[in-house]
Amino acid sequence: VLKMRKSIQLVVGIVAILGAFAVKDAEDYYKNIDASAVNDDLKGQLQVLINPHTVYSYDDVWTAFPSIDVYLPRYPCSQNLSYIPDIYSGYCWKPDVTAAGAQCGNYKKEGDCFNREHLWPKSWFGGFDEGQNAQTDLFELWPSDGYVNGLRGNLPFGNINKATMTYNSTNGCMIGTCDSASGYSGKCFEPAAILKGDLARSYFYLSTAYWKKWSCCDTDGVNKSDIKTWMENILRTWHANDPVDDLERSRNDVIYSQWQHNRNPFIDHPEWVDQIADF
Predict the structure, then answer these.
(1) What are the tens digits of pLDDT across the range 225-246?
(2) Can the peptide bond before residue 76 be classed as cis, meaning omega within 30 degrees of 0?
(3) What's phi and psi for 225, nearest 5 deg?
(4) How far is CA 94 from the centre of its chain?
């Protein structure tokens, strides 16, 4: 317990140091953005800034996870600080393609292995090869329990009616019929409360970065890069109720400084979500 407490203190210290150095970088990054702009004007300015990024292979994503996902909630999740959490379960993973119970691999139950989750299902932009580089974007790909990822499939995010719940993962992700208040009557995937804002801001990033870049598809949750109103309303609520924290800022900083050299503007400037009426 003492060792774990010291590990947590170390992470908090690192986050604080990174934050101090990152503020200036973030200010410089947005220096040509008109912060008073709204709607498509602001969205267009941001797209020009954030869409160009260093593109990695799908295999490279495995290498990136250990450096960026130490800034997920629940880290450290093991006394071995090389292990990382995922977004769909309460398990802890060794980021090693050769280890049993690490990178998927086959799975039969939760906790068997972890894989690379496309938050915005890749079928929604026409498949892996149609992503216009979204398919390996580190703001789109997150470590996830393979079994829970498979259960989600391409279900849209939403708030479920708890009486219809068919699955509840070890970190609180749920599958069931969408709450009738959403205006959508199909099945939904509801992520853990601690990550709802993070995932919503990733959707706003993707809708902006790949605005008019995708020629496909009209689905239950999106039409090309446009988020359908029922789901956008839920994501906006998640964004408001689960605001940006230091871990999310640090993840953004590391993706920018060590990997893609672009940023998620809705982490740095969460107020810009309200300045864009339609994603």
Answers:
(1) 999 999 999 999 999 999 999 9
(2) yes
(3) -90, 0
(4) 20
Residue with tokens 């970065």: 209
Assigned token pair, 84:
């990382």
The fraction of the chain above a pLDDT of 70, given in percent, is 90
pLDDT tens, residue by residue, 98-154: 666 578 878 999 999 999 999 999 999 999 999 999 999 999 999 999 999 999 999
Token pair for 76: 């450290």
- The 3-class secondary structure across the chain, one letter per residue, is CHHHHHHHHHHHHHHHHHHHHHHHHHHHHCCCCCCCCCHHHHHHHHHHHHCCCCCCCCCHHHHHHHHHHHHCCCCCCCCCCCCEECCCCCCEECCCCCCCCCECCCCCCCCCCEEEEECCCHHHHCCHHHCCCHHHCCCCEEEEEHHHHHHHCCCCECCECHHHCCEECCCCCEEEEECHHHCCCCEEEECCHHHHHHHHHHHHHHHHHCCCCCCCCECCCEECCEECHHHHHHHHHHHHHCCCCHHHHHHHHHHHHHHCCCCCHHHHCCCHHHHCCCC
Can you say how many angstroms the Cα of residue 146 is from the centroid of all Cα atoms in its chain? 16
Please check whether residue 237 is in contact with residue 230, taking contact to mean a CB–CB distance below 8 angstroms: no
CA distance between the termini of the chain: 45
pLDDT tens string 89-114: 999 998 876 666 578 878 999 999 99
Cβ pair 206, 225 in contact under 8 A = yes
Pair of tokens at residue 111: 């906790």
For residue 217, count CB atoms less than 10 angstroms from its CB and return exposed for 0-12, middle for 13-18, buried for 19 or more.
middle
